[in-house]
Design brief:
single chain, Rossmann fold
Protein backbone atom coordinates (compact mmCIF):
# COMPACT_ATOMS: atom_id res chain seq x y z
CA UNK A 1 0.00 0.00 0.00
CA UNK A 2 1.14 3.54 -0.73
CA UNK A 3 0.43 5.81 2.25
CA UNK A 4 0.65 9.58 2.24
CA UNK A 5 1.45 11.12 5.63
CA UNK A 6 1.05 14.84 6.23
CA UNK A 7 2.36 16.69 9.28
CA UNK A 8 2.37 20.42 9.98
CA UNK A 9 5.57 21.05 11.92
CA UNK A 10 9.23 20.10 11.69
CA UNK A 11 9.35 18.30 15.04
CA UNK A 12 6.49 16.09 13.84
CA UNK A 13 8.31 15.43 10.56
CA UNK A 14 11.42 14.28 12.41
CA UNK A 15 9.37 11.87 14.55
CA UNK A 16 7.72 10.23 11.56
CA UNK A 17 10.83 10.25 9.37
CA UNK A 18 12.54 8.09 11.96
CA UNK A 19 10.16 5.26 11.04
CA UNK A 20 11.31 5.09 7.42
CA UNK A 21 13.90 2.93 5.70
CA UNK A 22 15.45 3.32 2.23
CA UNK A 23 14.68 7.03 2.32
CA UNK A 24 14.96 9.36 -0.63
CA UNK A 25 13.86 12.93 -1.13
CA UNK A 26 11.85 14.46 -3.94
CA UNK A 27 11.64 18.23 -4.30
CA UNK A 28 8.83 19.45 -6.54
CA UNK A 29 9.12 22.47 -8.82
CA UNK A 30 7.06 24.32 -6.20
CA UNK A 31 9.81 23.67 -3.65
CA UNK A 32 7.68 21.18 -1.70
CA UNK A 33 9.73 18.42 -0.09
CA UNK A 34 8.47 14.83 -0.08
CA UNK A 35 10.36 12.12 1.82
CA UNK A 36 9.71 8.69 0.34
CA UNK A 37 10.62 5.53 2.20
CA UNK A 38 9.54 2.10 3.35
CA UNK A 39 7.74 1.11 6.52
CA UNK A 40 7.40 -2.65 6.50
CA UNK A 41 5.53 -3.66 3.34
CA UNK A 42 4.22 -0.13 2.71
CA UNK A 43 5.67 2.78 0.79
CA UNK A 44 5.33 6.06 2.67
CA UNK A 45 5.26 9.53 1.15
CA UNK A 46 5.86 11.96 4.01
CA UNK A 47 5.56 15.73 3.77
CA UNK A 48 5.39 18.76 6.05
CA UNK A 49 2.59 21.10 5.04
CA UNK A 50 3.16 24.01 7.36
CA UNK A 51 0.56 25.36 9.79
CA UNK A 52 -3.03 26.21 8.95
CA UNK A 53 -5.79 25.26 6.56
CA UNK A 54 -4.41 26.78 3.36
CA UNK A 55 -0.94 25.25 3.77
CA UNK A 56 -2.49 21.87 4.59
CA UNK A 57 -4.89 21.93 1.65
CA UNK A 58 -2.24 22.96 -0.88
CA UNK A 59 0.23 20.29 0.21
CA UNK A 60 -2.43 17.58 0.47
CA UNK A 61 -3.63 18.26 -3.08
CA UNK A 62 -0.05 18.29 -4.37
CA UNK A 63 0.66 14.95 -2.69
CA UNK A 64 -2.47 13.37 -4.18
CA UNK A 65 -1.94 14.80 -7.67
CA UNK A 66 1.71 13.78 -7.84
CA UNK A 67 1.75 10.41 -6.06
CA UNK A 68 -1.90 9.13 -6.03
CA UNK A 69 -1.60 7.44 -2.60
CA UNK A 70 -4.07 4.77 -1.55
CA UNK A 71 -4.78 6.60 1.72
CA UNK A 72 -3.83 9.82 3.50
CA UNK A 73 -2.92 9.91 7.19
CA UNK A 74 -2.71 13.28 8.91
CA UNK A 75 -0.87 13.14 12.19
CA UNK A 76 0.44 15.67 14.66
CA UNK A 77 -0.56 17.50 17.80
CA UNK A 78 -3.85 18.99 18.97
CA UNK A 79 -5.31 20.74 21.96
CA UNK A 80 -7.61 18.67 24.14
CA UNK A 81 -11.04 20.30 24.49
CA UNK A 82 -12.82 17.69 26.58
CA UNK A 83 -12.43 16.73 30.22
CA UNK A 84 -11.72 13.17 29.15
CA UNK A 85 -8.55 14.06 27.25
CA UNK A 86 -5.11 14.10 28.84
CA UNK A 87 -1.73 15.17 27.50
CA UNK A 88 -0.18 12.34 25.42
CA UNK A 89 -3.59 10.77 24.63
CA UNK A 90 -4.40 10.32 20.96
CA UNK A 91 -7.72 11.32 19.43
CA UNK A 92 -8.46 9.62 16.13
CA UNK A 93 -10.92 11.68 14.13
CA UNK A 94 -14.00 9.59 13.52
CA UNK A 95 -15.36 12.89 12.19
CA UNK A 96 -13.74 16.24 11.42
CA UNK A 97 -15.50 19.61 11.37
CA UNK A 98 -14.51 23.25 10.95
CA UNK A 99 -15.12 25.30 14.08
CA UNK A 100 -14.59 28.61 12.25
CA UNK A 101 -16.80 28.29 9.14
CA UNK A 102 -20.26 29.77 8.68
CA UNK A 103 -21.80 30.03 5.20
CA UNK A 104 -25.17 31.43 6.24
CA UNK A 105 -28.72 30.16 6.48
CA UNK A 106 -29.34 26.75 4.98
CA UNK A 107 -25.95 25.44 6.09
CA UNK A 108 -24.88 23.86 9.34
CA UNK A 109 -22.29 25.68 11.40
CA UNK A 110 -18.91 24.44 10.21
CA UNK A 111 -20.19 23.45 6.76
CA UNK A 112 -18.68 24.76 3.54
CA UNK A 113 -21.73 25.18 1.32
CA UNK A 114 -22.15 22.28 -1.07
CA UNK A 115 -19.87 19.99 0.93
CA UNK A 116 -20.55 17.69 3.89
CA UNK A 117 -21.20 19.32 7.25
CA UNK A 118 -18.67 16.90 8.73
CA UNK A 119 -16.02 14.77 7.10
CA UNK A 120 -16.29 11.15 8.16
CA UNK A 121 -13.08 9.14 8.44
CA UNK A 122 -12.60 6.01 6.41
CA UNK A 123 -14.20 3.26 8.50
CA UNK A 124 -11.52 0.66 7.72
CA UNK A 125 -8.70 3.01 8.68
CA UNK A 126 -10.49 4.04 11.87
CA UNK A 127 -11.01 0.41 12.91
CA UNK A 128 -7.36 -0.41 12.14
CA UNK A 129 -6.04 2.45 14.27
CA UNK A 130 -8.21 1.56 17.26
CA UNK A 131 -7.62 -2.20 16.99
CA UNK A 132 -3.85 -1.75 16.56
CA UNK A 133 -3.64 0.26 19.76
CA UNK A 134 -6.11 -1.53 22.01
CA UNK A 135 -5.37 -0.93 25.68
CA UNK A 136 -3.74 2.44 25.06
CA UNK A 137 -5.36 5.85 25.53
CA UNK A 138 -6.34 6.00 21.88
CA UNK A 139 -9.95 6.74 21.07
CA UNK A 140 -12.15 7.95 18.26
CA UNK A 141 -13.92 11.28 18.44
CA UNK A 142 -14.73 14.58 16.78
CA UNK A 143 -11.80 16.82 15.80
CA UNK A 144 -12.59 20.51 15.37
CA UNK A 145 -10.34 22.47 12.99
CA UNK A 146 -9.83 26.18 12.48
CA UNK A 147 -7.20 28.79 11.77
CA UNK A 148 -6.60 29.71 15.37
CA UNK A 149 -4.41 28.38 18.16
CA UNK A 150 -6.91 27.99 21.01
CA UNK A 151 -5.46 29.42 24.21
CA UNK A 152 -8.18 30.37 26.67
CA UNK A 153 -11.29 28.99 28.31
CA UNK A 154 -13.73 31.30 26.50
CA UNK A 155 -12.51 30.13 23.09
CA UNK A 156 -12.71 26.51 24.17
CA UNK A 157 -16.23 26.92 25.52
CA UNK A 158 -17.38 28.62 22.32
CA UNK A 159 -16.27 25.57 20.35
CA UNK A 160 -17.82 23.16 22.84
CA UNK A 161 -21.11 25.04 22.73
CA UNK A 162 -21.39 24.42 18.99
CA UNK A 163 -19.77 20.97 19.07
CA UNK A 164 -20.31 19.50 22.55
CA UNK A 165 -18.89 16.14 21.51
CA UNK A 166 -15.64 17.72 20.27
CA UNK A 167 -12.54 16.04 21.70
CA UNK A 168 -9.64 17.95 20.14
CA UNK A 169 -8.92 21.08 18.13
CA UNK A 170 -6.24 21.64 15.52
CA UNK A 171 -5.45 23.78 12.48
CA UNK A 172 -5.12 21.32 9.59
CA UNK A 173 -7.35 18.23 9.84
CA UNK A 174 -10.43 19.91 8.34
CA UNK A 175 -8.64 21.14 5.24
CA UNK A 176 -6.97 17.77 4.62
CA UNK A 177 -10.29 15.99 5.14
CA UNK A 178 -11.98 18.34 2.68
CA UNK A 179 -9.34 17.81 -0.02
CA UNK A 180 -9.49 14.04 0.45
CA UNK A 181 -13.28 14.16 0.23
CA UNK A 182 -13.13 16.17 -3.00
CA UNK A 183 -10.45 13.87 -4.47
CA UNK A 184 -12.12 10.69 -3.17
CA UNK A 185 -9.09 9.49 -1.22
CA UNK A 186 -9.62 7.66 2.11
CA UNK A 187 -8.24 9.63 5.07
CA UNK A 188 -7.76 9.52 8.81
CA UNK A 189 -6.51 12.16 11.24
CA UNK A 190 -4.56 11.03 14.33
CA UNK A 191 -3.85 13.77 16.84
CA UNK A 192 -1.73 13.57 19.97
CA UNK A 193 -2.98 15.82 22.76
CA UNK A 194 -0.19 18.27 23.55
CA UNK A 195 -2.08 20.62 25.87
CA UNK A 196 -5.49 21.44 27.32
CA UNK A 197 -6.46 25.05 26.49
CA UNK A 198 -7.84 27.15 29.30
CA UNK A 199 -6.13 25.41 32.20
CA UNK A 200 -3.53 27.12 34.36
CA UNK A 201 -0.07 26.56 32.92
CA UNK A 202 -1.47 25.76 29.46
CA UNK A 203 1.53 27.13 27.57
CA UNK A 204 3.96 25.24 29.82
CA UNK A 205 1.99 22.07 29.04
CA UNK A 206 2.53 22.66 25.34
CA UNK A 207 6.26 23.40 25.58
CA UNK A 208 6.87 20.54 28.02
CA UNK A 209 5.14 18.13 25.64
CA UNK A 210 7.97 18.48 23.13
CA UNK A 211 10.45 17.51 25.84
CA UNK A 212 8.44 14.46 26.90
CA UNK A 213 9.49 11.89 24.34
CA UNK A 214 6.94 12.46 21.55
CA UNK A 215 8.68 9.57 19.77
CA UNK A 216 6.94 7.27 22.24
CA UNK A 217 3.56 8.64 21.23
CA UNK A 218 4.35 8.20 17.55
CA UNK A 219 4.60 4.48 18.32
CA UNK A 220 0.83 4.58 17.83
CA UNK A 221 1.37 5.56 14.21
CA UNK A 222 3.91 2.78 13.78
CA UNK A 223 1.50 0.22 15.23
CA UNK A 224 -1.19 1.38 12.84
CA UNK A 225 0.99 1.21 9.73
CA UNK A 226 2.23 -2.25 10.66
CA UNK A 227 -1.36 -3.45 10.76
CA UNK A 228 -2.67 -1.85 7.58
Amino acid sequence: MQIGIIVAMHDELVCVEGMLENKREFVADSGSLFIIGDAGRHEIILTQSGIGKVCAAVRCHELIARFAPDVIINTGVAGGIDAATRVMDMVVGSEVVYHDVWCGEGNEYGQVQGLPARYVADAVLLDKVLASNAGKRVYGGLICSGDKFITDRDELEAIKTKFPEGMACDMESGAIAQVCCMCKVPFISMRIISDTPGVEGHWEQYTDFWKAAPQQSFAILRNTIENL
